[in-house]
Design goal:
By secondary structure, this protein is of the alpha+beta class. The chain has three helices and seven strands; from the N terminus they run βααββββββα. It is globular. The termini are far apart. This is SRPBCC family protein.
Length: 145
C-alpha cells in the first residue's frame, strides 16, 4: 500500500475550519476554481455515512462514498466509487482538523491506496501536490474572505 500526505496550518481555530470542511458536499462552495458542481446522491445527508457525492472536476465526474465522519475527532474518510477516476485501488482518503493551542489549526489530508508498483511514486506525489495541497489552499482562501 502507498500513502500520500499533505498538511498545513490554518490561521483559524479548528471549530471554524471544521464547520466548513465537514460538509461532504461543500467542495463547490470552497473550491469553485476546480469543482463546478456537487451533489449528494439518493437524497442522503452530506454527513451520513454511506452518502455518495458526485462532483465535476474539469470535464470529469468523480463519485466518492463517505466511510466515516467524526465531529469529536474533526475528521472524515471516504473512498472512490466505481469506476475510480484514477488507476488506483483501495483508495481511502482522510481529512483531519486538529486544534493548535494558539487558536490556529493543523489540517491533514492523506490517502492510502494501491496501484501498479512502477506508478506508486507518481500517484503518491500527484495526490499530495495536485489534489490535497490545492484543495486545502482553496479552503484557506475561502475561510479568509
Amino acid at each position: 500500500m502507498a500513502r500520500s500526505y499533505y498538511s498545513t496550518v490554518f490561521e483559524h481555530d479548528a471549530a471554524a475550519v471544521w464547520a466548513v470542511a465537514r460538509d461532504f458536499n461543500g467542495l463547490a462552495t470552497w473550491w469553485p476554481a476546480a469543482v463546478s458542481e456537487s451533489h449528494i446522491e439518493d437524497g442522503k445527508a452530506a454527513d451520513q455515512v454511506g452518502a455518495v457525492r458526485a462532483f465535476r472536476l474539469g470535464e470529469s465526474t468523480i463519485r466518492e462514498r463517505l466511510l466515516a465522519l467524526s465531529d469529536l475527532d474533526r475528521s472524515y474518510s471516504y473512498e472512490f466509487c466505481d469506476p475510480a477516476p484514477f488507476p488506483v485501488v483501495d483508495y481511502v482518503a482522510t481529512l483531519r482538523v486538529t486544534p493548535v493551542s494558539d487558536g490556529r489549526s493543523f489540517v491533514e489530508y492523506s490517502v492510502v491506496f494501491d496501484c501498479v508498483g512502477a506508478e506508486r511514486g507518481h500517484w503518491t506525489s500527484f495526490f499530495a501536490a495536485e489534489v490535497f495541497e490545492p484543495a486545502l489552499g482553496a479552503l484557506k482562501d475561502h475561510l479568509s474572505r
